[in-house]
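Minutes, project check-in
Item: structure for the 343-residue chain
Input as provided by the requester:
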Amino acid sequence: MCFFDYQARVRDWPRFRGKMDLMKSANKDDEMKVDIQSTRHEDRPPRRRPEWIKVRAPSGETYEWLRRMMRSKSLHTVCEEAHCPNMGECWGSGTATFLLMGDVCTRSCGFCDIATGRPAPLDWLEPERVARAVQAMDLRHAVITSVNRDERPDGGAPIFAMVIQRIRELQPGCSIEVLIPDFKGSIESLKIVTDARPEILNHNVETVPRLFRKVQPQDHYEWAQATLTNAKNLDPEGLTKSGIMVGLGETMKEVKEVMEDLRSWDVDILTIGQYLQPTKEHLPIERYYTPGEFEEFERFGGDIGFKWVESGPLVRSSYHAEQQVRALSVVHRKLYGFETINE
């Protein structure tokens, strides 16, 4: 699902592979089945990271305080699960992205390092804990995402709505971005989320259509299209957003074609970043894009009409999300006027 937002360590690879068998039987309605052997990749020398990809280790008093608070509330953050390269910057300034509905996913994307299997039942008290954490952190902008929960007909959509509502009650003025699964294209599940009116609704297309079966075998490009176009139809004032990771074997031309598709679906905001292989068991990096190529994507995105493009080697889904809301969101202005917390 989530644009390397799920690159946590798989602690037990044999257990991971076994759970994939369970996942296959749980997804018999999907046309695309998972080839377990295809998730393992031949050993090849790791590509040396270029000098423009440098990640600073997270540190500082604010970071340590937030880490302890997350553990005390039994919460997961994408920042930690994905080993996000921007975690130090974001946590140091008091922002974070929350991961809902557990740390086991029902899908097995080739770039993703979250364990795959049958998740535990939903925790209906989780929205309260997340909202309390947002309040304790005094956040101006909260990003909420989740694992896929394909075992549920609603995909876990009510949890998103509950979190949005409770954050608005406890931390008025805090803008909210949701990074959602595709819900298998279900407009009913999507409407549960859009009715709660998040300022930004994000669903990452991740890669180009040619690579979907290799990169995310249980996903369909058509489901991404349905999610993003229906979101805009359900709430025309809401901002829609998507992301692409590059370095998996796509071409520049294919990336630009996906960008054109996203604009035709009326997507407002786009993020593009470099894929970084979480472990040798995951899809290899086919190549590193240069800063100049990311600048080319940004220029092209502006030329074809995106309202905001973040394109760079270490750009991730929620990078500069707060600035996007403050600059673009009609929903936020209608909810709170021009005054927001801490301003």
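Outcome recorded: The chain has a mean pLDDT of 80.
No further action items on this chain.
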